[in-house]
Write a structure and sequence with these properties.
Layout lengths: L13 H20 L3 E2 L5 E3 H4 L5 H5 L3 E3 L5 E4 L4 H10 L8 E10 L11 E10 L4 H17 L5 E7 H10 L7 H8 L2 H14 L6 H11 L9 H11 L4 E3 L13 E7 L8 E5 L5 H4 L5 E7 H10 L13 E3 L6 H10 L4 E3 L6 H10 L4 E6 L2 E6 L5 E4 L4 H5 L1
Parallel strand pairs: 1-5, 7-8, 12-13, 12-14
Antiparallel strand pairs: 2-4, 3-4, 5-6, 6-11, 7-9, 9-10, 10-11, 14-15, 15-16
Helix pairs in contact: 1-5, 5-10, 7-8
C-alpha cells in the first residue's frame, strides 16, 4: 500500500488550511457585500451537460467515466457550465439578474507543474440575466475590491473583446470553423511568442496562415472604439479607479466567451494570471432554449495563495487558531477552558496528563501564543514568544490575550 496522495492531488495540513480559510472568508465577505448569493452544485454532472462547452483541449482534460448504474458522468471541470445548468433547471425560481458566488473544487487531468493540479479550488462570481455594460463593470469592480481586501497593492486587470476579435476574423475571411482554434493559438502568444503562434496555426488544416498572421498584426493596432461597449466599460472603470489595461492579444481559450474577456496579473508574481473571466451570452441558452446573458470571473485559488505567500501578504494577518493552551495540571482546567470559550477565546485544553514541560513544548510546536499555568490558586499567563510570565485573573484574560 502506498501511503501517499495521487499525483496532482494534495492534503492541506493546519498551517496551510488556515491560510486557505482566511482567503475564503475574506472573499466571501466581499462577495456578499456586493449582493452575491452562495451556490453549491454536485461534483458529478451528466457527461452531456459538460461536453461541447470547453473546446477540444478542455474536453481532453475532463474526468469522464460510467457510474455503477451505467450512466455516463463527468467530474465538474469548472463552475460556469454547472451554473448554466442551474439557471436552466430552476429558471422560474431565480430572480434575474441572479448574482451568485461559488467556492468548490474542480477536477482536470492536467500535466502537473507549479501552480497546476488535478484537483483544485475555484472561486467564481457571476451575474446572470443582464446584458448591461454595468454588469461587466460590477464584475471588474468585484475583482478589484477582492484583491485589495487580500492585501494586493499592485496588479493589472488586462482586458479585450471577443466580439471585436470575431469581427476582425470575419473581415479577414477566416471561417467560423477555424475561429475557436485560431483563438486558442492567439491565447498562447505570451508563452510561445509569435513564432510559436504561427506554428500552432500551421497545424490547422485549410487555414490560410498568412491571412491569420496579418489579421493578428492589424489587431495589435486596434483600440476600443468611442461609444462601443468596451469603451463604456473602460471609461466607467477608470472613474472607479479599477486598474484596467487594454491587452490586444488576450483571447482566453474557452469557447463560450462572447464579449468582454479579462485576466489579472500581479506585480511581483510572475508565474501566470491569478484570475480571469468575461461575458458569455450564449452558454446558458444551450440549456434553457433561450438567450440569457451572463458575465463573471474565477480566481485560480492556488495561484492566489501562492502569490500571497511570495509577496508575504499573510505576515501579520490573524489566521485564527488556538489562542491559549490551558494546561492540564488542575482539576478546574476544563471549567476554565470552557469559560474562556464562552468569552470568544479559542482555548485548547491539553487532554493528556503530562508534566508541564511537555505541555509547554506542545504549545511551542503548535505555535500557540499563550499558555495558562496553574500555581496553586494563582493563574499564570505565559507569553510563548517573549517567555514572559504574569499573574492574571480569569476576567482579565480576554483583554490580555486580545
Amino acid at each position: 500500500m502506498k501511503v501517499q496522495t495521487l499525483k496532482g492531488f494534495r492534503d492541506f495540513l493546519p498551517k496551510e488550511a488556515r491560510k486557505r480559510q482566511f482567503v475564503i472568508d475574506t472573499l466571501r465577505k466581499v462577495f456578499e457585500s456586493y449582493g452575491f448569493e452562495p451556490l453549491e452544485t454536485p461534483a458529478l454532472e451528466y457527461e452531456e451537460v459538460l461536453m461541447g462547452k470547453y473546446g477540444e483541449e478542455g474536453e481532453k482534460l475532463m474526468y469522464k467515466f460510467e457510474d455503477l448504474g451505467g450512466r455516463k458522468v463527468a467530474l465538474r471541470y469548472d463552475q460556469t457550465v454547472p451554473l448554466a445548468r442551474v439557471v436552466a433547471q430552476y429558471g422560474n425560481d431565480l430572480p434575474l439578474p441572479f448574482k451568485r458566488y461559488q467556492i468548490q473544487p474542480v477536477w482536470r487531468a492536467e500535466n502537473t507543474q507549479k501552480g497546476r493540479y488535478r484537483e483544485f479550488l475555484q472561486v467564481d462570481a457571476d451575474i446572470v440575466g443582464s446584458s448591461s455594460y454595468l454588469a461587466d463593470v460590477e464584475i471588474l469592480s468585484l475583482t478589484n475590491t477582492s484583491l485589495k481586501s487580500l492585501g494586493f497593492k499592485k496588479f493589472r486587470i488586462k482586458f479585450n473583446s471577443r466580439e471585436v476579435l470575431f469581427g476582425k476574423m470575419k473581415e479577414a475571411n477566416i471561417s467560423e470553423v477555424f475561429q475557436p482554434q485560431v483563438i486558442r493559438a492567439l491565447d498562447k502568444v505570451d508563452k510561445i511568442g509569435w513564432e510559436g503562434v504561427e506554428k500552432e496555426l500551421k497545424k490547422i488544416e485549410g487555414l490560410d496562415i498568412n491571412i491569420a498572421m496579418v489579421m493578428f498584426r492589424l489587431w495589435e493596432t486596434t483600440q476600443p472604439v468611442e461609444g462601443d461597449e468596451m469603451n463604456k466599460i473602460w471609461k466607467k472603470s477608470t472613474e472607479m479607479n479599477i486598474p484596467l489595461e487594454w491587452k490586444l492579444t488576450l483571447a482566453r481559450g474557452l469557447n463560450y466567451y462572447t464579449g468582454l474577456i479579462f485576466e489579472v496579473e500581479i506585480d511581483g508574481y510572475e508565474a501566470c494570471s491569478i484570475a480571469g473571466g468575461g461575458r458569455y451570452d450564449n452558454l446558458i441558452g444551450m440549456f434553457a432554449g433561450k438567450d440569457i446573458p451572463a458575465v463573471g470571473f474565477a480566481f485560480g485559488f492556488d495561484r492566489l495563495i501562492e502569490a500571497m505567500d511570495e509577496l508575504k501578504l499573510f505576515d501579520g494577518k490573524d489566521l485564527g487558531g488556538t489562542e491559549i493552551l490551558v494546561t492540564n495540571v488542575n482539576p478546574k482546567a476544563s471549567q476554565i477552558a470552557n469559560e474562556l470559550r464562552s468569552k470568544n477565546i479559542n482555548a485548547e485544553l491539553y487532554v493528556d496528563e503530562k508534566d508541564l514541560d511537555k505541555q509547554l513544548r506542545y504549545a511551542d510546536r503548535c505555535s500557540i501564543p499563550y499558555v495558562l499555568i496553574f500555581d496553586k490558586d494563582k493563574l499564570i499567563l505565559k507569553d510563548m514568544k517573549s517567555g514572559e510570565q504574569s499573574e492574571v485573573t480569569l476576567d482579565q484574560l480576554p483583554d490580555v490575550i486580545r
